[in-house]
Amino acid sequence: MALVSYINSSMLGQYVNANIVSVLFAIGSALSIILTLCAPLLMRRFGTLRVSVALFILSTVLLWILGTTLSQPLLLGVFVLYFGLNACVLYSLDIFIEHYSTDTDTGKIRGMALTINNLGWIGMPVLVGIISTAYGFSSVYLLAAIGICIAGLILAISQRNFSETKTLAAPNLVAAFNQIRHTPALRRIISIHFLLQLFYSWMVLYVPLYLLQDLGFNWKTIGGIFSIMLIPFVLFQYPVGRIADKWFGEKEMIIMGLVIMSGTVLTLSLVANPSVVVLAIILFGTRIGASIVEVLSDSYFFKQITVDDKGVISFYRTMQPFAYIIGPIAGACLLLIIPYTGLFILLAILLLIGAVYTTRLVDTR
User: Fold this and answer.
1) How far apart are CA 125 and CA 127, in angstroms?
2) Is residue 363 included in any domain, yes or no?
3) Which of 184, 264, 294, 321 suits a disulfide with 32, CB 3.0-4.6 Å?
């Protein structure tokens, strides 16, 4: 996933303009919502492991097509389908992780899972820069296909004896929606999670375009910047998760993370013609805040539910694709009247509002 995440918009930009790229992301996200809401029903019918492995196999095939096809219409259609599957893949992993978690160690387990996940993200931008410069974007997609195929094999082998006894409750999406609606803690943390995903959607989509088009950096340089940017996800998430479990809870640190994100995103918009070093420092700062909010929003949410609440987990994970609908559409409209830096200023304001909203959370400790 990391290999192609930051080049998707640039790859699509070779064929269509930025507004069409935004629309493709939005369509893929709408599909992702539908698939993620259907995933609990499929798991009930066919089993969690079978559905999860099928998702990995399909992602592998789609990435391989993206790396080999010469047909523009096919490429655009396959991208939409691949992008739509991403949230489902993450949702399937949520079920396995929650299966082995208890409330007393949720922060630690979520922190460890995110840290391991993000180890895969740190070196990828540099690798992407090297490979895409030497061999083009297609080679990156082929390598990603191999990676997700291996991940699917690991899942299939390691979980071959996975017991469904804790996950057999039939998911009821209407009941899940009512549970969220009548539970303030769930409503608020899901809203915070949506804001985090909106941040990711704009940063992933528009920062690469900003660095390429406005600042004139090449992908090799951008890859190095992004690798530095992602280091906080490995440094902070596991210890922050443990701290939330043992001492402080999540509320105050989520507020701190959102404030850090807001300040650094605002700085990105205000610094004119930044150097590579300055950009790396600013983007590093954005991810310090994001890494804190990501692990603690997961920790807080999963302390409110059990593995039987598949429908609620499904709604939680649809916040990512929902943000990738709202974000690109709003971004495409705003870019008609403001530059990329204007988007970053607006995002900084939204993050600050989110920090104020977080004060309404009832802490877990």
Assistant:
1) 5
2) no
3) 321
